[in-house]
From TrEMBL:
Its EC number is 3.2.1.-. Its main location: endoplasmic reticulum. This is alpha-1,2-Mannosidase. GO terms for biological process: carbohydrate metabolic process; endoplasmic reticulum mannose trimming; ERAD pathway; positive regulation of retrograde protein transport, ER to cytosol; response to unfolded protein. Ca(2+) binds at residue 475. Belongs to the glycosyl hydrolase 47 family. It comes from the Eukaryota. It comes from Pteropus vampyrus (Large flying fox). Residues 538-548 have a biased composition (Basic and acidic residues).
Length: 578
């Protein structure tokens, strides 16, 4: 039977019954239409406040009604909010913002930027908007989705991040200067999520542009983390990317680790990659064995499994949604209900919650309007139709409006105990929190398409199908259409084919050891037999010795080619289409 991964819930579960009229705990029904309009009003209150008071800065400061740069001076809130505009049905503003971004955003600047945040917010936001452009009525150029201004911007931003991956381990630095690369003296310590959260955006970029470098570096980083896990199958929180030694050895599913696990699952679904899914399932076993207690997940020492922090972090609330993607609905609902009790206790999720004491942790009492619990509710509601999930959505709308709304947007809640506010509105509030709330209450949104409608698009590489549903959300809630990865595939495959042909040509002139060195990088990634060691050229040579030797190509013969090649000269291959 051919391998098939679970498809995203927007496609898989769209036909499940939805219990819209179910009563809440106070006997009232959380009416989806009513709350959909409430969420839309929340979005425009925040969005308009950003445009009027903060643009072109990255983010709004809602208490002082001004703006500030936070992650690199990209007008970040505008990029992050772009696909939300379309999900809310505002095509005219989507079109206007596309023009504004092309005219105003410049990545050739002397700014130190977070590699992780720039990828998930900027590269992810631009890729999503690029793939949704035609649906939004933007006049796309010939060759779309394999070309386009937003795609070129995403590629430019991603190329600015590539120097960070030039380390002995292949794991990236956490910060890079967009003009000069990695600064001398930059700390080599990076969090696990900052290493393993690239495969969704970078594989999409490679598929659309035909340049494999992005997917390649993302896969190397994923594999290095996999090879660094402990003997009991856990990974720590921070690692030295130069030496591969763990600096912080706390293992859990929350801050500093979270999206690494998320991208193993979403990367597996997006790329139909069973190895990535197998890696996650192995991690999942270790997580259940060592960190789960009564459907809570604690922090443990990665080598011993002993509890180090009996806390729940708000960032961990993505986990039930991730469990739903692998079909583990019962466990997902039990954990979700635990987290929901914390929300009810405070009207939001504190950054840290001490589970045995049942209260917040000192200096971690805030709630910056994070989306994770709402995200899980959206996924689980698509899968189950359980009205409890709509009740969470209702409670979130009421809490955020009551506590956080100010004249110029929505402010971070500094302390959930007394509802003191902080002067910041993170861009993810518009990218994620509002988006997941709206999708929770909008069962007929195009994002939830079950494949009954689609668009056939003619590209230079043939016909492809787009807009059929099954969108994969990156960790900033930017939806990626998985079908788009097939639209430009021929270009990518031909590029790899050319590389393979050149390697075979040169292998005829070189000895076996030289042949092994030049082809080692093209070998498919195989999970190592055990944790704690990096793959090395010597390891690959030993593996190759065990395999039957390939049939040698006779001199002056040509391997078969699925495309027409006219001339090869000094490594340059000229095609009929060039």
């Amino acid at each position: 039977m051919p391998f098939r991964l679970l498809v995203p819930l927007g496609l898989l579960c769209s036909l499940l019954p939805l219990h819209h009229g179910a009563p809440g705990p106070d006997g009232t029904a959380p009416d989806p239409a009513h709350y959909r309009e409430r969420v839309k009003a929340m979005f425009y209150h925040a969005y308009d406040s950003y445009l009027e008071n903060a643009f072109p800065y990255d983010e709004l400061r809602p208490l002082t009604c001004d703006g500030h740069d936070t992650w690199g001076s990209f007008s970040l809130t505008l990029i992050d909010a772009l696909d939300t505009l379309l999900i809310l049905g505002n095509v005219s503003e989507f079109q206007r913002v596309v023009e504004v971004l092309q005219d105003n955003v410049d990545f050739d600047i002397d700014v130190n930027a977070s590699v992780f945040e720039t990828n998930i917010r900027v590269v992810g936001g631009l890729l999503s908007a690029h793939l949704l452009s035609k649906k939004a009525g933007v006049e796309v150029e010939a060759g779309w989705p394999c070309s386009g201004p937003l795609l070129r911007m995403a590629e430019e931003a991603a190329r600015k991040l590539l120097p960070a991956f030039q380390t002995p381990t292949g794991m990236p630095y956490g910060t890079v200067n967009l003009l000069h690369g990695v600064n001398p003296g930059e700390t080599p310590v990076t969090c696990t999520a900052g290493i393993g959260t690239f495969i969704v955006e970078f594989a999409t970029l490679s598929s659309l542009t035909g340049d494999p470098v992005f997917e390649d570096v993302a896969r190397v980083a994923l594999m290095r983390l996999w090879e660094s896990r402990s003997d009991i199958g856990l990974v720590g929180n921070h690692i030295d990317v130069l030496t591969g030694k763990w600096v912080a050895q706390d293992a859990g599913i929350g801050a500093g680790v979270d999206s690494y696990f998320e991208y193993l699952v979403k990367g597996a679904i997006l790329l139909q990659d069973k190895k990535l899914m197998a890696m996650f399932l192995e991690y999942n076993k270790a997580i259940r064995n060592y960190t789960r207690f009564d459907d809570w997940y604690l922090w443990v020492q990665m080598y011993k499994g002993t509890v180090s922090m009996p806390v729940f972090q708000s960032l961990e609330a993505y986990w039930p949604g991730l469990q739903s993607l692998i079909g583990d609905i019962d466990n997902a609902m039990r954990t979700f209900l635990n987290y929901y009790t914390v929300w009810k206790q405070f009207g939001g999720l504190p950054e840290f919650y001490n589970i045995p004491q049942g209260y917040t942790v000192e200096k971690r009492e805030g709630y910056p309007l994070r989306p994770e619990l709402i995200e899980s509710a959206m996924y689980l509601y698509r899968a189950t139709g359980d009205p409890t999930l709509l009740e969470l959505g209702r409670d979130a709308v009421e809490s955020i409006e009551k506590i956080s709304k100010v004249e110029c947007g929505f402010a971070t809640i500094k302390d959930l105990r007394d509802h003191k506010l902080d002067n910041r509105m993170e861009s993810f509030f518009l990218a994620e929190t509002v988006k997941y709330l709206y999708l929770l209450f909008d069962p007929n949104n195009f994002i939830h398409n079950n494949g009954s409608t689609f668009d056939a698009v003619i590209t230079p590489y043939g016909e492809c199908i787009l807009g059929a549903g099954g969108y994969i959300f990156n960790t900033e809630a930017h939806p990626i259409d998985p079908a788009a990865l097939h639209c430009c595939r021929r270009l990518k495959e031909e590029q790899w084919e050319v590389e393979d042909l050149m390697k075979e040509f040169y292998s005829l002139k070189r000895n076996r050891s030289r042949f092994q060195k030049t082809t080692m990088s093209s070998r498919p990634w195989e999970p190592p037999a055990g944790p704690g060691t990096f793959s090395s050229p010597e390891n690959h040579d030993e593996e190759r010795e065990k395999k039957p030797a390939k049939q040698k190509i006779p001199l002056l013969s040509c391997p078969s080619q699925p495309f027409t090649s006219k001339l090869a000269l000094l490594g340059q291959v000229f095609l009929d289409s060039s």
